[in-house]
Amino acid sequence: MITMKSPEYLSKDILDEDFVRVFRFPFLVQMALGSCRVHLKARFITIPTLGQKLYTVMSIIICSLLYFNITKLYLPLYYQHSIVYYLFLAVTGLDQLSFFANLIHVRFLNGETNTAFCIMMQRIDRNMKIDHNNILNKTVIRANIFTITFIILIYVVLVISTIMLNEYSLVTLFGLLYGQLIFMVEMAHCSNLILFFFTRVRFVNAIIKNHVHPENQNQPPKLVRYFVTNRITRYLAAQTHDFIVNDTDVYLKQIFEGFSMFTDIYRFQVCLFCIKIVVLSLLTFELCFVAVQRNLLETKNLTNYYIMTYSVIGFFTALYVSGRCELFFREIRETKRLAVAVLLQYQEGPLREKATRMLKIIEESTPQFSVYDMWNMDGYIFIKICSLVTNLIVTLLQFAYL
Description:
mainly alpha
């Protein structure tokens, strides 16, 4: 006898339309690039299909041939100068290896974990009733559209410049552009997922603030188009939530669990990105430095400019990701401060117990974006990267002139 599965089990992999709308744009872009982590059809989420994986394999093969064509076309220009020759080979080789590693990781690994992460994010929104506050979701939607569109436009400009300067280089350098675009879109999506968790923690804080400091919570604030301010969040929370009846400790625990899943999934991309930006910046500087010394930096050699442009974009992306991480961790510190304020206000009772549970959750499972226990992603990581690159560049200059 066949038994029907429970409705809860049947619906757990089906995403709400409002939630799908939040991540639809990055999903479509990554589907076109062959780097989407999940397959979404009719709001049902699964691991990538066989056809999508074959599409990715075909992309890897084609890009491998294009990378080989780059080395075949441009390396002979530097063959008489061994230092520049090997530097150029190292730069293109590093870019190719990072492209392969990133694409294989997002498409062929952690398939079940990726689907579980999407379901976890929706469960957070359902429990917190975020669907009643579409402004929070619209903030993430705008961030997705703006960041990814901006990155695409940069590479469109590079393509147009290629067509204007040298038509043959467009096909030759397509593999380089394609690999870099996939990586940058992935990092932009990573930073916007941090924004997703940031807005949820800020919403929890708004619920507590409305209880601890109830003044002006029901006064409609002036809406800011591209960012949810504290006043807006407090106003939204006051319409649907109350610290007395809502389980803010459960909300916080689920947010921390979701962020832990996020760091487990994305720490490989962040590690690869940070290592690549440091090594590529040093190789690019040394390549340009030696090429200028020997008068080899030709104006029509677009590969050199692509590499330099990618290094600049990489530093801005690092600043963007580290800034988002710092905002998230500061909001958690604010949660801790508000929980202590509740403890000071109540000497006993259920609200004091709830605040105690929240403090315990923060103390025992404080979120950290640890990259394989080597470093933590926060607001200072960008400064550390710049400091490291600057020190190494000064060292290279000392070897060159002293």
